[in-house]
Amino acid sequence: MTATDHKAQEIVLRLDRITKRFGALTANDAISLTLARGEVIALLGENGAGKTTLMNILFGQYTADEGQVEVFGKPLPPGNPRAALAAGLGMVHQHFTLADNLTVLENIQLGTVPLWRAALGQAKARAKLAQLAADFGLGVDPDARVGSLTVGERQRVEILKALYRDARILILDEPTAVLTPQESDALFDTLRRAVAKGLSIIFISHKLHEVMALSSRVVVLRHGKLVGEVETAGTDRHALAAMMVGAEVTPPAVTPITPGPALLTLREVSTPSIGAAPGLNAVNLALRAGQITGLAGVSGNGQAALSDLISGLISPQSGSLEGVGRMRWSSRAAIAAGIARIPEDRHKTGTIADFSLTENAILETYTQAPYSRWGLMNWHAAEEQTRHLIETYDVRCPGPHGPIRQLSGGNMQKLILGRVLDAAPRIILANQPVRGLDIGAISYVHSQLLAARNAGAAVFLISEDLDEIMALSDVVHVISEGQLSPEFQRGEKTAAELGLWMAGQGFDRAA
Amino acid sequence: MLFDILLTASFWAAAVRIASPLIFATMGELICERAGVLNLGIEGIMVIGAFSGWMAVYLGMGLWGGVAVAMLAGMLFGLLHAMLTVPFGLSQHVVGLGVTLLATSTSYFVYRLILPEVTSPPKITPFQPLEIPYLVDIPLVGPALFAQTALTYAAFAVVVITAVTLYRTPLGLAIRAAGENPGAVAAQGLSVTGLRMGAVIVGSGLMAVGGAFLTLSAFSSFFFEMVNGRGWICIALVVFGAWRPGKALLGALLFAGFDALQIRLQQTPVGQVVPYQMFLMAPYILSILALILMSRRAQVPAALMQPFNKGER
Ligand SMILES: Nc1ncnc2c1ncn2[C@@H]1O[C@H](COP(=O)(O)OP(=O)(O)OP(=O)(O)O)[C@@H](O)[C@H]1O
Ligand SMILES: [Mg+2]
């Protein structure tokens, strides 16, 4: 859009010098911003830049220390989500706010009917929901339990929740971080329809191609300050990346090296399927020293089973694991075999939210010297190690003592990465290691994985991002419905050919 | 012999009578837990309900006045429990046991203050059975269900009201959501603190009425140790009922049925050989077995016992 019709348009949201401090840390520093009707603003910034904090202030979940918010020309009372909802704000949080044991309809109706009303009025709600589903392309079964839905469907429920309340301004905090590329496309389709109906959107993302595709304006935060504001049409990915981290970002160089012997071999391994998630079907895989093995595939095709198997959470039903010692296969055996894990879900399996950074840092090694001797913990050594990790891996945090849940997602991931890499493991299982990370952090994680590979570790990289797989992997497998493709050397297949395998096509011929 | 017992109307009537206090208190606990708060104050709140209801009637209030006083006393202790566990976020186990000890000893203390010299506690005139015309004539079921006291009918009404409220009203949805994911409730602009405190206070009121049933409908007098672990049984019944009012009602009836049965079995020839303690144990053992079988697939409220602080991640 041009500057003239920008002015002509109605301003729906105005942030005026918003400042928020957590102790010594200034998470938002005098941020001012306006949003026009029908406009899509992309909010960019490194992990911990203060994006989520700003949106939470807008939505009344945090109270700003200074500054104020105006919606449709009226000041918004601070610290009051109800007022924010009533003013027409709808928010999709970075972490879903859904009750798993309730149905979709119940989650959507929650808080929309006055509490003292005698009935829920479900028939009317269903009709409205069906209408929204048709208008915005958001089909979900209203009677399904939310816990049984896929991540993409849950995302749809979150958006439906906002639309059901007639939100005029949608705020989406990293909505695509956990979606498959297909689900992201469907989401963008929905958002475009919303904009066509006159809604305004602020969305946060670390994926620059999404920012370029969807937004009309880009706003960049760094260390809590607004450092740049550009029309999307007048910029490109490189310029945005530079604005975000304050320097040019270059992908790490990959130098070919000769791989060593296989450190872990799977022979004809099968595992049972769990619910809708397929198990493995006679999988052969060799993880070699000094090599990055990439696993491409649409999520939900057996990646979880393979990653659980390698991390020792499940045992093979048939087939064998070689190179892991004689212990009965368990996560302890996996740790003993030198397998270090970067888990897919850092909140559920990667960290313990209420534990301090120190406790989380030694989660896998606490039984070993120097962290414990004769059954007694040596917290001094543990804290020393944590400080070392914070320093080396650039974890932005107040210090080693606070609970880890206070960290931004990206910084939590950096601590996990440090925990894994610092022990110089033989085998590294990296499951979606850069999910939710900013581009600077992504390039950092990638260079660390490459460094580990150059030092002789076997790296197993699971990702849905084909570009990431193709850039880093020495050899690539594709997984589809629990079946593993043969091993492809770097450059052997094009992205399009791998895409066909991901859709399950090559397997018929191979079988 | 077992058959003979099962075919007598008085057995079924006894089972329903024994179940009544359990039903009130189980519904009370269920409401608390559905909102995410485990209320271990239940045992003491039943004692204070039994005592205060009885004392109110003894001091000249009507029977329903006694029920109201019991309910208010329960709600008062519920308020204490709720204040400590919800806004202050203290350990629900510690607070619950504390409330139980406080409520129990308060009852005993006030009892001694008001009746310093009495050795055997005075009796009151309890609720009388109310026969419902026509229905009472149905064989077996009639005398069991339709010749009970008003308080027993109220217990069944409470189950229906609880179920309808939880599953059919906006308030019930909000309460259940507060026990599943308080963050989701807060994000919809509702007050988790308000919902949880309200649930604990109302639930505690019901527990106290369950206690009052013992003095106002069953035994017509108050004595120490009269609640005798019924509160703890109700906690198990909530689990047994998988946090659903209807199933919890079934559990209460089942437990009461075993209890009524064991009393009668003691008087049979078998009772002459087997020590009576064995019979006393039976309902508990059977309940534990049933609990194991039933609770395998139970859906625990996901946020049960998790305090919620706004503005924290
Ligand atoms: N409740 C809190 N208590 C203490 N510190 C907090 C709290 N919430 C956020 N912070 C801190 O404020 C800073 C900004 O966090 P915020 O979540 O806004 O980052 P973000 O830009 O959303 O990052 P990401 O891209 O990783 O999601 C971080 O350093 C974080 O640790
Ligand atoms: Mg964030």
Strand content of chain B: under 5%
Bound molecules: adenosine-5'-triphosphate, magnesium ion
Largest sheet of chain A: 7 strands, mixed
Treating each run of at least 4 consecutive H or I residues as one helix, how many helices of chain A? 19
Largest interface: A-B, 36 and 25 residues
> How would you state the average pLDDT of chain A, rounded?
87
Q: What is the percent of helical residues of chain A? A: 25-40%
Structural class estimated from helices and strands of chain A: alpha/beta
Task: Give me a quick take on this structure.
Chain A is of the alpha/beta class and 511 residues long.
Describe the structure.
The complex is a heterodimer of chains A (511) and B (313). Chain A folds into three domains: 3-245, P-loop containing nucleotide triphosphate hydrolases (Rossmann fold), CATH 3.40.50.300; 249-338 and 425-511, 3-Layer(aba) Sandwich (Rossmann fold), CATH 3.40.50.300; 357-423, no CATH class. In chain A, strands 13, 15, 18, 19, 20, 21 and 22 form a seven-stranded mixed sheet that branches. By secondary structure, chain A is α/β, with parallel strands linked by helices. Chain A is built from 19 helices and 22 strands. The relative contact order of chain A is 0.11. The N and C termini of chain A lie far apart (53 Å). The model of chain A has no long low-confidence stretch (mean pLDDT 87). Chain B is mainly alpha-helical and 313 residues long. Chain B has a domain at 20-228. Helices cover 70% and strands 0% of the residues of chain B. In chain B, α4 (63-85) runs antiparallel to α5 (92-114). The longest helix of chain B has 27 residues, at 192-218. The radius of gyration of chain B is 20 Å and the shape is globular. Chain B starts with a helix and ends in a 19-residue tail after the last helix. The model of chain B has no long low-confidence stretch (mean pLDDT 91).
